[in-house]
Structures are given as structure tokens and as C-alpha cells.
């Protein structure tokens, strides 16, 4: 919300929800502006013509793993994969 307020200070709020899929469907349905992750623009053909603005929203991302499970091979593999994927996606 802070990034949106910075970019579009006077824009009215049409809907508040805690699920990005609901917000996206609503914005598409009424033709509203919204801020979505780049991956949405790349994978949803309905957003293909969307205008991209140079606005970034950043937040902390935590990966929590029970210490007794961290060294289980399957858990370790998933943790390592997530770290690799997120690490390569970060600027």
C-alpha cells in the first residue's frame, strides 16, 4: 500500500482484500489500476497490454524451517531450491 500511495497519491481505493488473486480479478473486471508482481504480467494474457511503471514494492521474505527438519534430505532440497530461486530473482 505504501508503494501504491507513493505512485498514485490521489487514486481512490475501490477494493481491499488480503488475496492478490481476488484483487486482480476485480481490477480486470472493472478496469481498475493495481500493482501486481511482474510474474502476473508475464503469465496472465489478460494483463499483456498493461502499462508498467517504475514503482517497486519491497518487503521482507522469511523462510522458516523447524530446526529438527532442516537436515532431512527432502526438506533441505526444497529449502535450497527456494533460496536459489529467490536469490536469482533479487536485484
Molecular structure report:
The protein is elongated. It has helices at residues 2-7, 20-30, 38-43, 73-89. By secondary structure, the protein is mainly alpha-helical. The chain starts with a helix and ends with a helix. The longest helix is centred in the last third of the chain and has 17 residues, at 73-89. It contains four helices and no strands.
Supply database-style keywords.
91 residues, mainly alpha, 4 helices
Biggest pleated-sheet summary = none
Unreliable stretches covering 5 or more consecutive residues: none
Indicate the mean pLDDT. 85
Could you tell me the radius of gyration in angstroms? 17 Å
Q: What structural class do you assign from the helix and strand content?
A: mainly alpha
Question: What are the SSEs and their pairings?
Answer:
Layout: H1 2-7, H2 20-30, H3 38-43, H4 73-89
Summarize the structure.
The protein has 91 residues and is mainly α.
